[in-house]
Amino acid sequence: MSDEETLRIGLYTVGPLTNDFSGIYSYSDVLFPLLEEFNKRKHEVIWLGEEVENSTNNVFVNSLVEKKLIPKNIFDAHSLISKRNISADKFDYSKLDAMLVTPRPKFNPIENFTMNKIIEKCKENGVRVFLWETELWGDQVNKELRKDVILLRPYLKKSTFFKKQIFFPYFIFKYYGELYNNKLFDMLYVGNMFARQERFAEMLSLSAFAFEDSPKIDVFGDWAKNKEKRKFLEDNFNYRLKHINFRGQCNHCYSIPLLNSADATLHILPQNASEAGLFTSRVFQSMIAGTLCYVDTDIFGAKRFFPKELLVRDGFEITDRWKENLDNRVQLLSETMHAFSEKRFNLINVANEFEEAAEKYG
Fold first, then answer.
1. What is the pTM of this model?
2. Residue 127 in this model has a pLDDT that exceeds 90
3. Cα–Cα distance measured from residue 68 to residue 253, given in angstroms and rounded to the nearest whole number
4. Is the pLDDT of residue 194 over 80?
């Protein structure tokens, strides 16, 4: 694609257009850098999605901001898109060069129904459709439509559902704002439960962190949100003990500032994502924050991208290596950054691949 050529790209997502948001629609930090890159290339992105607004008032986090221990930096993406003035079912898809859609899990049937209808309309109008599978929810695309979709997958293993696919990683190497570098936490986990219970219990068990000099753990997310989740914490942690604090949910704009205020964090996944080799926004956020990221060694591809010192099977390996890894923090961060500096993890390269595919499969 030449410098003069531009694309009209339709975008169907359900979620926020700001990072001042709390909830399950958590991909704003992944989406914004891509929208910004499209904007630099003069591509027009036409929003055909549903904007969801939800905010959590976390008293503990508010106190950190008020004391100027962490910043609050909000990014708003409204200026990067063109808002539609008619509903998605009445939009003229023939005016698009490409359509980008994101699936939702099976318990969001209405959103996935809308996504499939958009794919059908694009097919009728000869418009290329890209499916950005931010999680492993590609099976929500109707089987008869999959051959007409170009999969953008953020995980290493190829999907068996789609013939046409491009590796399209989470490439969050940008932070909108400043960081204070105040170290307030030892081990910090920022993320919701979402089928991670078993590995979470193995990695952060009391037995591994019970000693006086063991790192303390702080957790942000929905782990104590309801009765069922609180029972898991009681059964596995007796979570009133001092080795771990569950701080509740917070808005996504605080993820990187909180990680920046910790010595280390942890990357664990649900089983299917682990087998596929998914490196989520947490990995890239920790690099921006300058925070060591311990990684479940069972995640496919982890040994390729992370120093062996940060690959762990359980909490005992974290505590055994804690002090030495902190002493070698700069070197370990440098090795991780170097591994993820491959061309295919570069945002500009990924955007180039999108443009090329928009022509190739047209």
1. 0.92
2. yes
3. 15
4. yes
- Residue 343: both structure tokens together: 């061309």
Cα–Cα nearest to 258, from 176, 186, 206, 309: 186
Cα 245 from Cα 241, distance rounded (Å): 8
Residue type, 220: F
Starting from the edge strand earliest in sequence, which strands make up the sheet with 217-220, in order?
Answer: 244-246, 217-220, 185-190, 262-267, 292-296, 311-312
Distance CA(157)–CA(153), nearest Å, equals: 9
pLDDT, the chain, mean: 90
Q: How many residues does the chain have?
A: 362
What values do phi and psi take at 251, rounded to 5? -70, 150
| CA terminus-to-terminus distance, the chain | 13
Distance from C-alpha of 17 to C-alpha of 11, rounded to nearest angstrom: 12
Closest by CA to 148, choosing from 296, 361, 342, is 361
Q: What amino acid is encoded at 131 in this protein? A: L
Give CA–CA dist 53/332, Å, rounded.
38
Laid out side by side, the sheet with 44-47 consists of 82-83, 44-47, 8-12, 98-101, 128-132, 149-153, 164-167
Q: Could you give the CA distance from residue 166 to residue 95 in angstroms, rounded to a whole number?
A: 24
